[in-house]
Amino acid sequence: MGLLDKATIITTPTAHSNGKLHSIKGGAVADFDVVRGSAATRVNAEGLIEDISVLSGELVTNGDFVNGSTGWSKGTGWSIENGSATLDGTQNAASALGSSGMSVVSGKTYKIVVNVLSKSSGFRIYDTDGVLAYGLSVGENVFYKTVSSATYQITPLGLSGSTGSITNISIKEVIDATNIPRIDYTTGEGVILTEPQSTNLVVNSELNNVENIVVSAVSYTISFYGTGSITLSGTHTATLVGTGASDRVSLTFTPAAGTLICTDSGIVDKKQLEALSYSTSYIPTSGAIATRLADAVTGAGDATTINSTEGVLYAEIAALANDGTNRAISIDDGSLGNSINLFYTGGISDNSIRALILSGSITQATMDYTLNVTDNHKIAISYAENNFALWVDGVKVLTDSSGNAPIGLNNITFSQGGGGSPFYGKTKTIAVFSEALTDEELTCLTTI
Predict the structure, then answer these.
(1) Three-class secondary structure assignment of 14-72
(2) Please, are residues 106 and 149 in contact by the beta-carbon 8 Å criterion?
(3) Which residue has the higher pLDDT, 362 or 2?
(4) Is residue 442 part of a domain?
């Protein structure tokens, strides 16, 4: 029998559905509830950034133009052949390439994708509500629109005298994008990604331009993909230089309060400015700043899968940053009073971990250990009456031989017992054992 066969609950970055992170062992009671309340992105297994959402079927007829002009009307200057629509520069202000009218529901949100193959000065996209986006970049352009009219038509319109070609136009209804867990592959391996709330203060994240952004005298991080550069002036002076189309570069700084001027040069893609000391996953914007709400992962386990007398809480995790905040994973009774807490903590010192055990609202054991919190670590807390230990990367680093085990344990959450200090980081595995493990087993379990 393998060691993990002894676990009562095992959760890894595998199966998930809207609002649920499914455990691979423990049954339905071991599934976590996931609440975010907003759309979000991730890096998929192919290394591409994608939004996390449940979408309808395709609403555009012949969006890749493989069937010629079927489903499209052409104004002066437009032609369709070889899988693309081309603008030759002879159009007037009213010349448009329009899709056939599509019936949509007022108040619902739609994902719109346009692939620009080439352009001279640019394209704009509009509908019956007005302009959606100006100056689309060469490549895939993705944006979202909540419609306010019952009739909707997307129309790429060439600016007067401009030339270029487009293809792969898509419109799909966003049925739900708010509470889907994110399995992220930024590092090449799948992890469960949980992040705090953050706002992209860049108004047009896909456009090369100059943006004036009002900032305070706090920590900010700017980031982008590409080979170009962003020059900062105004309240802070610096230049961030890109290293490749698939590389994300970032710069953390503290400006003076006032207006920060961000000037793009060359290929600058997926720009993001956040009031954080590190960069989080990409938040698309198109004409207005956008906020991704915080991930909350709670509510797995019960009294049959978690033992209050003895057991082990195991996690393979990495923090998003060494930012001085508390981030916890715990098993508890719904309160802090009876809980086994695994903290990455700013309360001790930088780069610290804490095992905190409480029973009857009285602290039974506290074990603190220093490590690099942004590295991936395998960590275990073993607990029983008068026998507590903290294991890190194959080593028993701390013990405590006095104290009672908690009572009534029936819940696992990505926070401290009873809530608070949510765990923002990258999780490869969470496991609970409802029996004591030997030192040899704990060494094997936690060895990197």
Answers:
(1) CCEECCEECCCECCHHHCEEEECCCCEEEECCCCCEEEECEECCCCCCCCCCCCCCCCE
(2) yes
(3) 362
(4) yes
pTM: 0.79
CB atoms within 10 A of CB 218: 11
Decide if 207 is inside a domain. Answer: yes
Separation of alpha carbons 324 and 321, rounded Å:
9
Beta bridge partners of 102: 152
Query: Cβ distance 86 to 110 under 8 Å?
Result: no
443 sits in which H/E element = helix 439-446
Between the alpha carbon of residue 331 and those of residues 66, 231, 317, 430, the distances in Å are 55, 47, 16, 11
Same domain, 13 and 135: no
Q: Which two tokens stand for residue 268?
A: 């600058």
Mark whether 74 and 137 lie in a shared domain. yes
Q: Cα separation of 219 and 14, whole Å?
A: 35
Of the residues 176, 209, 239, which one is the last residue of a structural domain? 176
Chain centroid, CA 365 distance in Å: 34
Residue 379 — pLDDT band, cuts 50, 70, 90? very high
Q: Which structural domain range is residue 81 located in?
A: 55-176
How many domains are there within the chain?
Answer: 3
Question: Does the structure show a pLDDT above 80 at 124?
Answer: no
Shared domain check, 301 and 287: no
Looking at residue 343, which CATH number applies to its domain?
2.60.120.200
Q: Judge if 415 and 364 occupy the same domain.
A: yes
Residues 301 and 422 reside in one and the same domain: yes
Inter-residue contact 344 to 319 (CB < 8 Å): yes
Rounded to whole angstroms, the Cα distance separating 6 from 4 reads 5
Same domain for 286 and 302, yes or no, is no
Q: Tell me if 184 is assigned to some domain.
A: no
Give me the amino acid identity at 92: N
Q: Report CA dihedral (273, 195, 170, 122) to the nearest 10 degrees.
A: 10
